[in-house]
Write a structure and sequence with these properties.
The protein contains 16 helices and 15 strands. The protein is of the alpha+beta class. The strands form three sheets. The chain has a ten-stranded antiparallel β-sheet. A three-stranded mixed β-sheet has the order 1-2-15. A two-stranded antiparallel sheet has the order 11-12. A hairpin with an 8-residue loop joins strand 8 and strand 9. The longest helix is centred in the last third of the chain and has 20 residues. It is globular, with a radius of gyration of 25 Å. The termini are far apart. The mean pLDDT is 95.
Length: 486
Amino acid sequence: MKLLDSFVAGVIANSDYTEMDTIYLANRILALVGEANAQQETQETTLIKLKDQLVELAVDNGRCADIQEEKNCLGAELMNFITPIPSQVNGRFWKTYQENPEQAIADFYDLSKKNDYIKVEAIAKNLAFSTPSKYGDMQITINLSKPEKDPKAIAAAKLVASSDYPKCQLCMENEGYQGRINHPDRANHRIIRMDLGEEKWGFQYSPYAYFNEHCIFLNTQHVPMVISKDTFSQLLDIVDIFPGYFAGSNSDLPIVGGSILTHNHYQGGRHTFPMEKAELSHRFTFKGFEEVDAGIVNWPMSVIRLTSDDKDKVIELAEKIRLAWRDYSDKSADILAYTDDTPHHTVTPIARKKEGRFQLDIVLRDNHTSEEHPDGVYHPHKDVQHIKKENIGLIEVMGLAILPPRLKEELLEVEKYVLGEYNEIADYHKDWADKIKASNPHVTAEKVSSIVQKAVGATFTRVLEDAGVYKNTKDFMRFVEHVGLG
């Protein structure tokens, strides 16, 4: 098959274009990639692989710089040929939703994969495994999907005039944005419009998903992250609108918050996290909220779980807990609500709908620092930062570790060290590796990988324990009693 002909045929097969549009499509594509060698022979049959070949042809023809960011922009523009315009995407979504909500969601998810907005091939490069802990199996991912910056791209970015459009990567203005060397390509990006309470929100998928159907709900206005009563209401609305999805929010304070605090957004998807499987270690009823089942989750972080048929009661109780926690201090447990006028307390909320009942996990967060722990008292402590030193955000809170790509090679060196082979182990792993070695004196080459993975999981569990505000139930129950038991 010829390259251009194959791509045009693929576009027609996967879009609203028809055979009548063949010449038009060919000419528009030639305008992007150049005419030389456009009809070279190809063995590829999938649209995304054909797109990749056209991008390389554009580089050869001088239509695109040999820099990954620019190639991505061209690739997204080519895949935009099979992506309906936003009004069509939204019209079809909500029309289908009226008959079958699950089908509407599935269709939008399929489009986002088919048009290469969700980087399926890149995501498959991630390393993933699970390890046992006393709280249940922890899920570990070493994130290899996002390509590292090319030095040529870094140099080129310095020459690009600064721009505040779009203001951030979560703004609505990203929909259809061409992209540039210092802002990602979004020509093939689409957002579903929806109402949450009195506000206009958008629903999209994450290009580099960390779990199944990883999606983002974003305020259509560029407003800062904030946890309030509206947050609980909106999260529970989302799990009502999107059957089978969870929805959660990062905290709204530095250290305990996510990477983007400047734009209010939530994350969701179709995935069962370890924290969801965790049982309650203590059960109780809050005064005035007898309709709500409440308890402490058996989890390394400090979690109160609320479950009820009555959505409004869950929202009201969650807000009562948030406000109580905001101003609560307990010096004996190193709980500090304020330093002068600087607040330290917030929550990480996660919503689900299980068997028709609304469930909300409220994770207590505290971001104060100390001389001993300058990165945060409830942040990964120094002795575990060789594995994870970044903020513990929503996804990690629920028991899925997102670990840096450096660990792929570094853990191989740890394995060699444990086996007593020649290695180039990083100094900051040596104490940890020595403990692994001491605990496994007869380790074999066949078992070393699983032993090191288990040690990674144990370290991640310690990371979550560091981030947990309460280290024992007695202290935790003092706060629960402060909120007001029935």
